[in-house]
Design goal:
The complex is a heterodimer of chains A (about 350) and B (about 270). Chain A is built from 14 helices and two strands, in the order αααααααββααααααα. Chain A has about 350 residues and is an all-alpha fold. Mean pLDDT of chain A is about 85; it is low at about 1-20. Classes of the chains: A mainly alpha (about 350), B alpha/beta (about 270).
Chain lengths: ~350, ~270
């Protein structure tokens, strides 16, 4: 019996103890199932109560709202599968936009220079979060809360210091603005309906994240560090590198979101973004990510963001008071969590 | 058994796979381990026995590369070394299976089996896991260890404790480990499950691995062990070959020997 001999192919033998798994049961064990059911329910609900909801133009608006959340919800979901939080994700978007805008304006360079400086600095913030977490002991909740507060202060402080007001100066007449706008904030017309380009960014991110999670070594490591950090470390998984990489992923999402913010509105309000970090986390949880890590999917988080988009715009189309938005959100979150919990219990019992 | 004799001979000629020579480890002013020596040979099972706090986990952590020793020498195939990380220990052929953290419960069996050493195919950014190969190999390797798994896609947390230990052992054998360190593999298991795990420990030995079997159960140790090292409060209180000690004597020493006598007297006096 040698350890290196090629394994014999098992052949098409069947095991009498392996009960035939029905396709339904296999479907039930997918992490995104709860959110898909929820999304269909929300869609039907608003299709019935808001006449204008199912028009193509309305759906495009819904998708746009979903994509702005989804671009962040996807990397935040990956981080959550890896067992960590990032409370600085919301203001990091604003920081990224501010850096890009102010660097371009102050250095009177091409806006693309600002865009890439912003990418470098934003990724560095992600690295800071990751390194702080892996080098020290406190939980990510506290460390990124610190980053959140520091970034909030710096956003306001630096903006007032440099431009004298709470918002940045217009960079619309600068070189490269139109091409940057085309990349980050343009509109594509398909079949007479306008679609924002963020929808494309969102879909690409979902595809890449899904590929990483299910088909790469890094994906295996992400599930492992979230589901059993010590076990992962013991078999040689580079736990620290994986976590730092996940924080850089969130930073990358923040950069894309931030550039969209800048190039669609031209000026950036320095106080924006506070509170959005919770929205990203809620989208990931609605999408079936386990809050303790080790379980979830990128597609689920994307569907979570879609539910968000449908509820926020659906209320407008139904001409209800938008104050009810957070109420609906709370209901969705609770229902999704309970459904996920129930589904997971069923899946685990059905071995 | 002829294979055993052969192993005996080769063991005498070649340096030990792992050798601890007068090894010590301190945590601040706490002496966790002092003057411990043991040898691990291919095809042999070295049992390390000790009560809670005897220094068993510290010993494991040194061999597994989780902690560095402070005194003495650690030799791997005759070469003196200091292990910097679990990864380095793995690369040098030392695989450790921990009782409670051997696997990631929510992940499928096949993902657990290859965790940390995933085979890939493709080029550049399109390099990806060879999923078909991973699933096929997991099933075949487990079958070879005698575990007929129902479904390699089920989360490993749905397996029994004994099965999980076996998957971890099969994993170490598959990845060509020369030394297998087992941290109390039978501690949380029932009688029947312990028997199953002991069978795989013996299978790993027959596959030519050197095994370090850490336990506080002398009965389990005596069933499979070739050599017995006893730890007590961080020091070595005995080292015996199988011929040099009986199960009764091993049990007596494990249980604390004379301390147990004293305890018996004390309890009898109280009762009387």
């Amino acid at each position: 019996m040698t350890a290196t001999a090629p394994a014999p192919a098992p052949g098409p033998r069947t095991d009498e103890r392996l009960l035939r798994t029905s396709p339904l049961r296999r479907l039930l064990s997918r992490p995104e199932l709860g959110s898909v059911v929820g999304a269909v329910a929300v869609f039907v609900f608003f299709a019935v109560f808001a006449d204008s909801f199912v028009r193509p133009a309305s759906l495009s608006t819904v998708l746009y709202a979903a994509s702005t959340i989804g671009i962040m919800a996807v990397p935040v979901a990956l981080l959550m599968i890896g067992g960590e939080f990032d409370l600085s994700a919301g203001v990091m978007v604003t920081s990224s936009a501010l850096i890009s805008s102010m660097f371009s304006y102050q250095m009177t360079a091409n806006v693309w220079v600002g865009v890439f400086v912003s990418l470098a600095v934003t990724l560095a913030i992600g690295v800071f979060n990751g390194v702080m977490l892996t080098r020290t002991d406190p939980p990510s909740f506290i460390i990124t809360l610190g980053t959140f507060l520091m970034l909030t202060g710096m956003n306001l402080g630096f903006t007032k210091l440099i431009s004298g007001t709470v918002s940045t100066k217009s960079i619309a007449d600068m070189e490269g603005f139109s091409s940057a706008r085309a990349v980050f904030a343009s509109t594509v017309t398909i079949g007479g309906v306008d679609f924002k380009i963020t929808i494309l960014w969102w879909l690409v991110l979902v595809a890449v994240a899904t590929w990483i999670l299910l088909r790469t070594r890094a994906g295996n490591w992400i599930y492992a560090v979230g589901g059993g950090e010590e076990a992962a470390r013991a078999v040689g998984v580079p736990v620290d590198r994986t976590k730092i990489g996940l924080y850089m992923g969130v930073a990358l999402g923040a950069w894309i979101s931030g550039q969209h913010l800048l190039f669609s509105f031209d000026v950036v309000q320095s106080g924006e973004g506070v509170g959005n970090e919770l929205i990203y986390i809620i989208a990931a949880v609605i999408g079936g990510c386990l809050i303790t890590g080790g379980y979830g999917s990128a597609i689920g988080a994307a569907v979570g963001a879609l539910i968000f988009g449908m509820v926020s715009k659906g209320i407008v189309f139904a001409e209800w008071n938008p104050d009810w938005f957070t109420f609906f959100l709370g209901v969705m979150l609770l229902l999704a969590t309970l459904l996920n919990h129930w589904v997971r219990k069923r899946a685990e019992a059905a071995k | 058994m002829t294979t055993e004799n052969m192993n005996e001979e080769t063991a005498a000629r070649r340096p030990a796979l792992v050798e601890l020579d007068d090894v010590s480890k301190y945590y601040g002013n706490v002496r966790a381990l002092e003057g411990v020596s043991l040898e691990v040979h291919a095809g042999h099972i070295t049992c390390v026995l000790g009560d809670n706090g005897a220094g068993k986990s510290t010993l494991i952590k040194i061999i597994a590369g989780r902690h560095r020793h402070d005194g003495g020498a650690l030799r791997i195939e005759g070469e003196e070394t200091r292990l910097a990380s679990p990864r380095e220990a793995l690369d040098r052929g030392i695989a450790t299976v921990y009782q409670d953290l051997a696997v990631v419960p929510l992940m499928p069996v096949w993902r657990n089996f290859f965790l940390g050493s995933e085979p890939r195919k493709g080029f550049g950014p399109f390099k990806h896991l060879d999923v078909e190969h991973m699933r096929r190999t997991t099933h075949a390797e487990l079958l070879r260890m005698g575990i007929d798994l129902r479904d390699v896609d089920q989360p490993i947390g749905t397996l029994s404790g004994g099965e999980r230990q076996c998957v971890a052992i099969a994993r170490a054998v598959h990845f060509g480990a020369k030394v297998l360190v087992l941290d109390e593999p039978t501690a949380a298991l029932g009688v029947k499950q312990s028997g199953v795990v002991l069978k795989y420990v013996a299978a790993a030995r027959d596959a030519g691995l050197g095994v370090v079997f850490i336990t506080h159960n002398p009965h389990h140790a005596y069933l499979v062990g070739d050599r017995f090292v006893l730890l007590k409060r961080g020091t070595m209180s005995g080292s015996h070959t199988r011929d040099g000690i009986t199960l009764d004597e091993l049990t007596r020493q494990m249980a604390g020997g004379s301390e147990l006598e004293d305890l018996r007297h004390e309890l009898e006096n109280r009762a009387g």
